[in-house]
Amino acid sequence: MPIPRVERQELLRTIARFDGRRILVVGDLMLDRYVRGSVSRISPEAPVPVVRVTEESVIPGGAGNVASNLAALGAQVAVVGVVGKDEAGRRLLEHFGDHGANVEGVCADSRRATTQKCRVVAERQQVVRFDRETTEPLAAATEKRLLAGLAVQLARAQAVVISDYGKGVVGPRLLAAAINGARRRGIPLTVDPKPEHFRRYRGVTGVTPNTAEAWACMGRAPRGGEAALTALGRGILAALRSRFVLITRGAEGMSLFEPGGRAVHIPTRAREVFDVSGAGDTVIAALTLALAAGAPPRRAAALSNYAAGIVVGKLGTATTTPEELAEALI
Ligand SMILES: Nc1ncnc2c1ncn2[C@@H]1O[C@H](COP(=O)(O)OP(=O)(O)OP(=O)(O)O)[C@@H](O)[C@H]1O
Ligand SMILES: [Mg+2]
Q1: pLDDT tens per residue across span 166-205
Q2: E runs forming strands in the chain
Q3: Can you name the CATH fold of 5-29+62-113+134-328?
């Protein structure tokens, strides 16, 4: 379906305003590690394949992937979060440093492990994944440092993304400080929610749950059909008193709810689908950057849907650029 000319020009104008916007990402940083290789035999020690490693790579995941997506879209990114004093934490900080993100607000805590997901992939098949993480609430001293870092970064930000994967960073105090700070400064604050923390998000600008998370946020069993979806979106809006709710619906695109308005259903713009992991991170990154660039939620959501449509067509957790995004608007 071609986009009307006027709408396309508005979308392009918003993209042109992405460059250099200062966006703060607060949340659970992770490191995704990929060990790639080939299998030619079964181990003599146990009935498992032997993978001959040919390649190893690391990329930021979780809130880190949101930061990567923002940076690729042209934002000036600052990060507030926690890493352990371990190799994975160092790799993460190094990666952010190389990509120009501000990491003054990242605390290193020797009592925590940097969240890490290591996937062993042979001939494109995942053989095993092993995780390392600490999910306990933060120690009081770490939370204090984090709050201080948040205050500094918030004062410079033009929008805030909270990327809550439930690993301990997004506690009630940190959230309250972020929500109040963003309100005081009149800047948008969006949340990729953890359903268990739903009640804490009251007063945010917008949330971006996927369908399953949206149902879980309301503590209801999922039901199909447009009427049920509309009731769900309205329920979340009322509970949070937010400016909008954007439910991402995988292959079915996304639905935007705003107070007083009708639900807007946006079909996916993906042309090819290779890898859908991390699409939600792309959505909240592009959405928030567009809001910071002055777009209303409807236009910001439309752009985030194009951005997600591009990244699902790439292999591996991926990002997109303003140029690719502009090209996709045909
Ligand atoms: N299979 C698909 N086909 C086309 N588009 C897709 C597909 N999966 C995701 N998308 C696009 O990506 C957006 C976000 O995807 P989804 O709703 O799966 O988020 P998510 O569950 O939070 O993803 P993740 O947690 O893996 O990052 C969708 O709104 C849509 O635009
Ligand atoms: Mg998600």
Answers
A1: 999 999 999 999 999 999 999 999 999 999 999 999 999 9
A2: 22-27, 29-42, 49-62, 76-84, 102-109, 115-122, 125-132, 159-163, 189-192, 206-207, 244-248, 254-257, 264-266
A3: UDP-N-acetylmuramoyl-L-alanine:D-glutamate ligase (3.40.1190)
